[in-house]
Fold these 3 entries.
Entry 1:
Amino acid sequence: MNVKNYIALSVFCSMGAFAQVTVDMKADIEQVLLDPLSGNVLVEDKDNVSCVNGQTNELNWSFAKKDYASITTLEGVTTTLNKIENNDFLNAFNKDEEVTLIPQSPFAAVRLEHNDLIVNSATGEVVFNSAEMQYRILQTYYLIAENNLLILGVKDSTISFLNYDLASKKVLWSNDLGTLDSLGKSLGNLFKAFTGKVTQQVEDKIITASDEILVTVKGVLYTINKTSGKINWNTSYIITNFFLNQRKDKIVVITDESSFLNSSMH
């Protein structure tokens, strides 16, 4: 987007609403996102990430990237990731955008050179800072009922699920999924569909049922014990969607061939 010093645009969001924004900015704009929950507009320029109120056109909050990107405690992790070539598991999570909205949540993920942040898009509060928690973020999900984040992160070349409590800002549990090397070998062939110019379109989602978390990662379904974080089982293939039956004791899985598979929760 070639916009300099101002925003003047109508943005269509997934909920079918338009937001009209005209705001003077101090730098060239690199990215604009409409938050469908609040109607506010997230703006990224070369130096800052900001939020513009969709109703008043006033600046709600702003922070300088350098205040977080200059943190060097994650350079070791970044170096490890940069050394890995042709890892289709890791490459599946590459994104061109630095700012992305976390689905069905009031949060946004911000990826910087040596750091990842999760920000409350309404207030600008940084609720998760990778430099402090020592995990680079691959993917984030919001557990609405629990007000927690389920984070797929990297630490010392190990991929883990983290259950992060937003109230206490503490990790309730973490469970290792595997190493970058092992997951590259076991899931790399599946995840090749998400690399390259033409990628497979799968919308990952998360739901909870009784004592389990059900979540898809690039179409691979995992069931996780909500209390311990133990992975009960996962599919060895990519699915396009899943849902629970009325009794919530079986999972109905839809594959990319449009076939249906039933699986017991236990």
Entry 2:
Amino acid sequence: MSAVGIPLADAELLRPEVRRTRLLQVALAVVLLTCLCVALLQATRTPVHHSSFFPAGERGVVVIDFSTSIAEPGYRRISNILRPVVNANQPIGVVFFSDVAYVALPPGTPGRELRSFLRFLRTLPALGRFPTAQQLRQAQEAQLRERRTPWSAAFRGGTRISTGLAAARRAIEREGAASTGTVLLISDLDDSPFDLAALAEELALYRRAGLDLRVVPLFPADTDRAYFRQALGPGAFVSHTELLRNARSTERRSLQADYPLVVSVLALALLGLLAVNEVACGRLDWRREQVVAR
């Protein structure tokens, strides 16, 4: 149904108002589209943060010891270390090793890809001073039950740290970023005596390539800690304070991310602009007089 026009003798006098209204409509349309695009980008974008383990702009690889000498406290620490990397969605590479090693995730993989892996590291909560009978029974069952993971069958031998470090170095070199790479070794440092010569050679290759090697010890023996301290220096060890700082930083970002403040503000702005458009640029409607039949 076509609209009915009303002829006006002084329509030319309204031309400036018509021009102003059209300009206002165009300006509001541009602002509305801009706000909508920004809101969509903000809602779909996954933020990337950087933990202190791997500085921004560097290729990071985590080398994780899954030899049979790793106990429940070690798995708990591995989980606590990886969770900040996962929540920060920091690009990462992952190498698993025991007496052999393989690259589970190549360098540059988004950290969120590790989330499904964390479920294999779940441990029972530590028993309190007065545990219940159910808690004791669960703890005993956990000790008797073999931890089954996708890598359990492959990692039944001893510990050869050199294999894990070599796999990480080669993965970084394939990316062409050896001079800006950082490797985080998570291990109890209980290396096989037959691997010490290969380990010393691998550490020399790290120094030659300019790779930064950091160590998170999983409750090692004093002699094993002393060996790596002498080979790498005390600064290579990640301190307990740094571990806590990364965990707290992740918790703070998680609390902030629970409420999408920017998206909410943009949504309110869109509603406000739509209201302005209706008030300022709405069509002029004429009501027809209704005749009530008597």
Entry 3:
Amino acid sequence: MLPLLRRLRLGQTVRDVGPQSHLQKSGTPTMGGVLFLLAATVATLAFGPRDDLAWTAIGFTWANGLIGLADDYIKVRMHRPLGVRARTKLALGILAGLGLALLAIGPLDVGTAVRVPFSAHLWHLGAGEFVLLVVIVSIATTNAVNLTD
């Protein structure tokens, strides 16, 4: 797949500011996240349940993936190394997290209790606290994935 991305000139543009070591990333194929989205979706549909929770997870993953795709597209095709503005990415991520949280406490009815890792303790959150937690965790997780890319 990398040769195809190189042939299509879907390479990364690197900003002039920042560490010198990042300059070697110039031309590195980008937009490969779409392949991971497709693979994860196919695997989920092939081997996972096809219930509302699975469809919600797929939708949330694609929502965040499309934000990344738009970011990569702007970097590559419009030659803007910064891609989508940080404020816009944050706003879209918050909307995706809000959508996920509202689906969870609404139609999916998964409840607002949260299990504390490595213990048997269960926190019973109110709807507002649960929504805030889901948004914060979804933004943090998405940014962690983006930073490792």
